[in-house]
Amino acid sequence: MTSERVGSFTLSHVADLWKDSTRREFMRVACLGGTAVLLPSMFAGCSDDDDGGITGPPSNEVVIDLDTDTGVLNYAYALEQLEAAFYSQVVSGFATSGLSAAEQTVLTDIRNHEVIHRDFLAQVLAGAKIPNLAVNFSSVNFRDRVSILQTAKAFEDVGVSAYNGAGKLLKDLNNLGVAGKIVSVEARHAAVIRDFLKPGSRDFAGDDVIDPASGLDLAYDPGQVLEGTAHFVTTPIRLVS
Amino acid sequence: MIELQTTPDTVEPTVSRRDAIKGTAALGASALAGIRIAAVPIALAGMTQRAGAQSVASIIGVLNFALTLEYLEDEFYRTGLASSVAATFSSAERSAVEQISMHETAHVKVLQATIRALAGTAVAKPTFDFTARGAYPDVFTNKATFFAVAQAFEDTGVRAYKGQAGNVASNKGVLTAALQIHSVEARHAAQIRRLRGQKGWITNADRGTLPAGTQAVYAGEDNTTHAGANAAPLGANAGGTPAVTEAFDEPLTMQQVLAIVAPFIA
Known about the structure:
The structure holds two protein chains of two kinds. By secondary structure, chain A is mainly alpha-helical. Chain A has helices at residues 20-31, 69-92, 101-125, 145-166, 173-197, 222-229, and strands spanning 4-6, 9-11, 62-65, 237-240. Chain A has a two-stranded antiparallel sheet. In chain A, strands 3-4 form a two-stranded parallel sheet. In chain A, a hairpin with a 2-residue loop joins strand 1 and strand 2. In chain A, helix 2 runs antiparallel to helix 3 (101-125) and helix 4 packs antiparallel against helix 5. In chain B, strand 1 (225-226) and strand 2 (229-230) form a beta hairpin. By secondary structure, chain B is mostly helical.
């Protein structure tokens, strides 16, 4: 197993987390909110008594090996699962969402696209696909148009950044081709959502995501992406390489 | 024509996959804002090149192809903003064109710098004819014509970069930069399309309200076979086949793109 630097806490071996001494130090830092989290189940033990009773890797932990194209595609599949689940919930709550008719039409399209992306990756991965992830959208107010759109914007920007950062990890050019066909659609989504939030502005391709000096969009590593979306997923995910 | 510059092949040390997958320091709620990989890929351009993979010369050729398209877009938007058509722009249209123009100018610089970093020679800017030999005589005086040509350029740009990603994949820095430009062109395309009253995405191979002469921009966009798998049935409870065609953008080959832009090169 390789080292995975997590914030200021270096794990020389992921299994070290299960040793009392290293676990207590990790949880001390984690409970202070200062450490990137790849294992949401770790927070179950945050209390005055920081012995959370964790005795081993969670039985429902999903392991994604980024050293293989299967792993990289599963990483993409995980994100598409999140997006499909999110937009499906948005669509089912249209009546109380505050979204305009035009916005509902677009979000229905986006929901369709994400479901198609998710199911396509499941089809490509077949028996090698990760299980369905348990999601948690309690931080989203589905009765608030702005909450919905801001969450959608985050998902789309993160999706773009994930595909852009994952391209270099793929070994098979056919898989790179598939990822390429999807990422530009996510970028189109991002532009439209951003324009809904600030119509007629420059936000569709704003300076907050595209560096004005280079014109380059976001590209994040898988660890960064999963950190950013960790609060939406309750299934523990472990990236290995 | 695009000149392919020949340079000796170089073999660069590879960067391990492990090093490319790093965790980061603590991130808060607004974590992702402002964090990005190096803005200019110069430092990354030499990061990886597996011996026996694409030659540096061929990668430079691809970059010069991309540079030609960026020269085209850069001059198109700058000229538009300086022409009488700009006086007819709504506030939303002006915002979009100014933002897009800034990006295309930046893309030219990034591609030139990347080519130089690979010890190549950047192709010179061609002379452009944005009327496309008289097909669009009012491109810089008529708003509808200007935005129609803009949409054609942006949707073509997306498909052009997509078609070349595999041809630069052995250089991880160049590949990542190409992907980072590709997604920006897609954002541009979506906004221009919606300013023209179209959906942000492409349905079937439908050019919508664009003139017939632009159909080549959308040829093949109705493909539903991806990675050898038929994706059409996936639309069953998700918008049907039209939605499946929207969910994937299709590449164009360099030859197809050059045929599309040839009328605009004097």
